[in-house]
Specification:
single chain, 118 residues, mainly beta, seven-stranded mixed β-sheet, four-stranded antiparallel β-sheet, 11 strands, 0% helix, globular
Length: 118
């Protein structure tokens, strides 16, 4: 069982920055595809960014140019650097790890709140 723990959330003014971290308890961290999602009440969880095993990254259009996803396989940690934050970025942010061997294994963190004041 893989455990994912997010940290780094909080309240920031519009235009400010935050860096989220997602620490994983898994030996084979480098073999996992990692993602950040976010969700606001009453809406579906949406994909923010994904980083593959080879560190290729994909972003939602709404965060391109402002957010950067990265991973440190030595520390079993994924990051999301969020710059130029907007009030509409406020949400609960979740990290996800996915791995396929004989079956698809997907794990989620518990989520962390990001609030942006205008």
């Amino acid at each position: 069982q893989v455990q994912l723990v997010e940290s780094g959330g909080g309240l920031v003014q519009a235009g400010g920055s935050l860096r989220l971290s997602c620490a994983a308890s898994v030996i084979t961290f480098s073999s996992y595809a990692l993602s950040w999602y976010r969700q606001v009440p009453g809406k579906q969880r949406e994909l923010v960014a994904t980083i593959g095993r080879n560190e290729d990254a994909v972003y939602a259009d709404s965060v391109k140019g402002r957010f950067t996803v990265s991973r440190d396989n030595d520390k079993n940690t994924m990051y999301l650097q969020m710059n130029s934050l907007k009030p509409e970025d406020a949400a609960v942010y979740y990290c996800k790890a996915a791995h396929y061997d004989d079956a698809l294994h997907v794990y989620w963190g518990q989520g962390i709140q990001v609030s942006v004041s205008s």
